[in-house]
Design brief:
heterodimer, A: Aldehyde Oxidoreductase, domain 4, Aldehyde Oxidoreductase, domain 4, 7-stranded mixed β-sheet, 23% strand, B: alpha+beta, Alpha-D-Glucose-1,6-Bisphosphate, Chain A, domain 4, 7-stranded antiparallel β-sheet, 3 helices
């Protein structure tokens, strides 16, 4: 079925309420910590209090005699018995040599490299007993100087050696684009605008902390791991093939209800492996649930870039070339997709919505004595958008033209468009998003509002951000050529039951995205059956064919497309059954709104009757067709999808306190075809608030010298609340994706990608008259106040 | 964490010096301290319970005195482990001087530089300065009470 005819099906575009909300809102959700297995023991991880130290000795004598202790394991016990955590993406240096890939042991062996590094797993009958025993472990550390900030890592290039495999602490250098062409364009430019900026480090903070229960069945030699995870098949593949060397079919990974991921639950973590391994060693079911303090220290962090960028322009503000250098923090070890985030997912997006002919990007990636950094909502694309959109607004201010005008002058106008940084945009309408956003934001009334604010002694500013992102990551062969060590397809399985109800199995995973509703809507619309008759199953390697999970706003465009392919097969087979029953040829049967019709006649059979016939094949072409109605499809996309949009933020700043109040925020997005606008709205709102959280208040801070996490709890790490925001004005533009069967582009990350520069540009627009040109996130009252004082 | 302070003591400099070198006095005056035993020259094994905000832990560690110039000054180096609560280490320079205004008694000048790690740093960082200051206040309150009892 084509994307166009799909978008016209009944119920596509209908704002159905989420099916899953009943269980979530009534406390019936089943999260990992809600699962209790018989004879379950509990694990606690002893973590390093030092950022960088040698482990001289570990004394378990007292701890192992503590009440209730079942077993304690340290690095010595696992050394040589299993591999380390693998990195899923290989990045090569410009000279072709591979990145440095130092080992990432499941439990620290001889050395700890960040505060929170896992030193021992303690298993006891109760959590309290495990905690008490962990407390009784005596570790003799010899502390070493710590390397903490990425700026220091880039400056010092050595001194402190975190991994002997990388004596200068550099993991890789990576470049993209034509440097000579960029240099030439700069040489002839009428104007060059430069910017230095920091993309502040973030802590993910999903509501549900990471948790896992490992179970080993001696009778069948099978493992079951319940884990709060976004992609159970990937978790299983990485753990069995690269770490534990187990046969994959002997391991079942179940990711039940998961309370938020934002990227941080994509990765294979040491705790998951340690529990799985220990469950066999101790022949016990073992549960571990991170406490909030552990989450702060051990969930992979996000962002943490220090960048310098320059835009070369002609006299009319037309972009000629862009030059970017970024130092990026990878933390102490390579997390699963950490290497791809600041390269493939970052630099390839730096064309943005603009027809900049030449772009050259250089990335230096560094190890530091901090928690590993990996994908966090948007993963690379927020970093690209923040840099580019800050730079573009600065270009406008330097040339004294409007922030909207400079964007419109440089927008890409025709598609497909090949960027100078590898991607090919299939479709979009950037002017339409900008024009709609300007109207909804009442940009024309801004001058008046600014004057009113001024009369009250307040500063008002307006900020723009026109973002683009690449979602539905793929195709597998292209990603493979770029260093991906995994496939990027998705699976979908449609099982029609004899009475016509349907169970859909998807490799995508929902941890807040509402797949159980959206995917059911897709199937119900295609088959012409009520949405209530469709259930969606996900998150269980024991029930679902091999899938890649949910990240990068890929679920509907890749996972949904796989379901569409399976539905195509269902339709073809059902038509054959219908043709047999109505004694006509397959080609004469049409499927419309749940009924099979003989073209040009009033002969028809409802879908449910075909389903029953498939399983009760009394009158059936058994010589030509198998009974049953169940189909599986795997879908590998031919390109990324490219959601884009324009966000306009208007802030008012209190000159006395530096408090930034968002007065209005307008977001116009192009997500292609919308299946459920209510869910899309929820995703956009969540993304916006997450992005504005970064821009307004969130900030992960380490002590520069000791590597201690200073923002290690919600007392010091500010999270946004509803009262921090106005009502958002949301709207969409639709240019359907041209290469998937739904025309969808994905909406999960857009808000977090587009919103931070809109807010900071608004802050700078407000502070501009005071002479403030530079400002790094977050725009907390203290930092804004300081910026004002520096200038006045 | 850094802390500086000056206290007026209503005892002679020699009395103050003796008290500051008496493990029994120190044990009684350091809040939460249940052990302050000599283990060598100018070295003590110390145990104390310490609370910073929501984190309370029993620290065991070592105190070393160096640069000892009776009855003028010493440097006290400390290092303690609090189990999963983390660690604390640092040093304190203690100096005794005659009272500034020529009055009776003496003055104690002290500076403390301390570093904490682990949970106590993660959760209690912003509370540490306050906790350290109240510990110092508490110490001198007890110290004065001890001296009055003599």
């Amino acid at each position: 079925m084509s994307a166009t005819s799909f978008s016209q099906l009944p119920h596509i575009g209908e704002a159905l309420r989420r099916k899953e909300d009943y269980r979530f809102l009534t406390g019936a959700g089943q999260y990992t910590d809600d699962v209790t297995l018989a004879h379950q023991a509990h694990a606690v991880f002893l973590r390093s209090p030092h950022a960088h130290a040698l482990i001289k000795s570990i004394d378990l004598a007292a701890a192992s005699k503590m009440p209730g202790v079942v077993g304690i394991f340290t690095g010595k016990d696992i050394d040589g018995k299993m591999g380390g955590l693998p990195c899923g993406w290989l990045i090569n240096n410009p000279d072709g040599s591979p990145m440095k890939e130092p080992p990432h042991p499941i439990l620290a062996i001889g050395k700890v490299r960040h505060v929170g590094d896992h030193v021992a797993i303690v298993v006891a009958e109760t959590v309290e007993q495990a905690r008490n025993a962990a407390e009784a472990i005596v570790v003799d550390y010899e502390t070493l100087p710590a390397l903490v900030s990425v700026a220091d890592a880039a400056k010092k290039r050595g001194g402190v050696v975190i991994h002997e495999q990388a004596p200068d602490n550099q993991c890789y250098k990576w470049t993209i684009g034509d440097k000579a062409a960029v240099d030439a364009a700069f040489a002839s430019a009428a104007h060059v605008t430069s910017i230095d900026l920091i993309n502040n480090r973030l802590i993910p903070n999903a509501i549900e902390p990471r948790a896992a229960i490992a179970s080993y069945n001696r009778a069948s030699d099978e493992y079951t791991l319940y884990v709060a995870n976004q992609n159970p098949h990937v978790e299983r593949l990485l753990m069995t093939a690269f770490v534990l060397n187990l046969p994959e079919h002997k391991v079942r990974v179940i990711a039940p209800d998961v309370g938020g991921g934002f990227g941080s639950k994509i990765f294979l973590y040491a705790e998951d492996v340690a529990l799985t391994w220990a469950s066999k060693q101790l022949n016990r079911n073992i549960k571990w649930t991170a406490d909030r303090a552990e989450s702060f220290l051990s969930d992979a962090h996000g962002r943490d870039h220090v960048s310098h960028a320059q835009m070369a322009m002609d006299a009319n503000g037309k972009f000629l070339a862009l030059r970017v250098h970024s130092d990026v923090n990878l933390g102490a070890y390579l997390s699963t997709f950490s290497t791809a985030v600041p390269t493939i997912l970052y630099a390839t997006l730096l064309a943005g919505q603009y027809a900049t002919p030449q772009i050259h990007v250089e990335v230096d990636a560094w190890f530091t004595n901090t928690t590993p950094v990996d994908a966090y909502r948007g993963a690379g694309r927020p970093e690209a958008t923040y840099l580019l959109e800050r730079l573009v607004s600065r270009c406008a201010w330097e040339l004294n033209i409007g922030q909207d005008e400079i964007r419109k002058r440089n927008f890409i106008n025709s598609f497909p468009y090949q960027t100078p940084v590898a991607l090919q945009y299939d479709t979009g309408d950037f002017h339409a998003c900008m024009d709609k956003a300007r109207v909804l934001a009442d940009v024309d009334g801004f001058a008046q509002r600014r004057a009113e604010s001024q009369a009250q002694g307040k500063l008002r500013g307006i900020g723009y951000s026109s973002y683009i992102e690449a979602c539905g990551i793929a195709p597998s062969n292209v990603a493979g050529a770029l260093g991906a060590r995994a496939g990027l397809f998705e699976c979908g399985q449609v099982r029609v039951h004899p009475t016509g109800s349907v169970t859909v199995f998807t490799g995508s995973h929902s941890h807040g995205q509402g797949h159980e509703t959206t995917f059911a809507q897709v199937v119900a619309a295609r088959l012409g059956i009520p949405v209530e008759n469709v259930d969606v199953v996900h998150g269980d390697t024991g029930r679902v064919p091999f899938g890649m999970g949910t990240y990068g706003s890929r679920s509907i465009s890749v996972g949904g497309a796989a379901i569409m392919k399976a539905l195509d097969k269902i339709e073809i087979k059902a038509k054959k059954i219908a043709a047999h029953l109505m004694e006509t040829s397959d080609a004469d049967v049409e499927f419309v709104n749940g009924e099979f019709i003989v073209k040009g006649t009033d002969k028809k059979i409802p879908f449910a009757q075909i389903a029953l016939t498939a399983y009760v094949p009394h009158n059936y072409p058994l010589d030509k067709l198998e009974p049953g109605l169940e189909e599986t499809a795997f879908y590998d996309p031919t390109n990324f999808t490219f959601p884009g949009g324009t966000y306009i933020c208007e802030v008012e700043i209190d000159r006395q306190t530096g408090e930034v109040r968002i007065d209005r925020f307008t977001a116009v997005d192009d997500f292609g075809t919308l299946i459920n606008p209510l869910i899309v709205e929820g995703q956009v709102l969540g993304g916006l608030v997450q992005g504005l959280g970064q821009a307004l208040m969130e900030n992960c801070v380490y002590d520069d010298q000791t590597g201690q996490l200073l923002t290690g709890s919600f007392m010091d790490y500010a999270m946004p609340r509803a009262a921090d925001f106005p009502m958002f004005t949301l709207d969409t533009v639709c240019t359907p994706c041209t290469h998937n069967p739904l025309g969808t582009k994905g909406c999960g990350e857009a808000g977090a990608i587009g919103s931070p520069p809109a807010l900071i540009n608004a802050v700078l627009d407000a502070l501009g008259p005071l002479g403030v040109k530079d400002f790094d996130m977050p725009a907390s009252p203290h930092r804004v106040w300081e910026a004002m004082q520096r200038q006045s | 964490m850094e802390m500086l302070g000056i206290r007026k003591l209503e005892i002679t400099q020699q009395q103050a010096w003796d008290a500051l070198n008496d493990p029994q006095v120190l044990k009684a005056c350091i809040p939460g301290c249940d052990k302050f035993e000599p283990i060598g020259e100018n070295q003590y094994s110390v145990g104390l319970a310490f609370k910073v905000g929501p984190v309370s832990a029993k620290f065991s560690g070592k105190v070393t005195l160096s640069d000892v110039q009776a009855p003028l000054r010493y440097t006290l180096t400390f290092e303690g482990q609090g189990g999963v609560a983390g660690f604390a280490k640092g040093l304190s320079n203690v100096e005794l001087k005659p009272a500034a205004d020529g009055a009776e008694g003496c003055e104690i000048h002290y500076s403390v530089q301390a570093q904490v790690g682990g949970k106590i740093a993660q959760i209690g960082q912003r509370l540490i300065d306050g906790a350290a200051k109240s510990t110092a206040d508490d110490f001198f309150k007890r110290f004065e009470a001890q001296m009055q009892r003599r």
